[in-house]
Input
Amino acid sequence: MDKIRDYLRISEAAEYLGVSPGTLRNWEHQGKIRAHRVPQNGYRLFRLSDLKAVLRDVGKSPLKRVRAKLVRRDQRRA
Output
C-alpha cells in the first residue's frame, strides 16, 4: 500500500519535473500522467514512481537542488 510520502502535490511534482503546474494539468487531461485525487478536497497528487517514469521516458533527471529539497521534506515527514 502506498504511503502519503510516496505522492507529491502538483506544485512539487511540477518542480520535480521542471515544468509548470499547468503543463501537468494538461498532461493529466491528455492521459500522459495519472493524478490521484484527495477525496476530501479534490487536490491532485502525483505518485513519485509515476514522475520518475516520466523522467526516464524523456531522458531527463531532476535538478540536484530540487531532489535535495524533496529528500529534506521526506525526512521531516518520517
Summary: Residues 4-77 form a domain with the Multidrug-efflux Transporter Regulator; Chain: A; Domain 2 fold (CATH 1.10.1660.10). The first helix runs from residue 10 to 17.
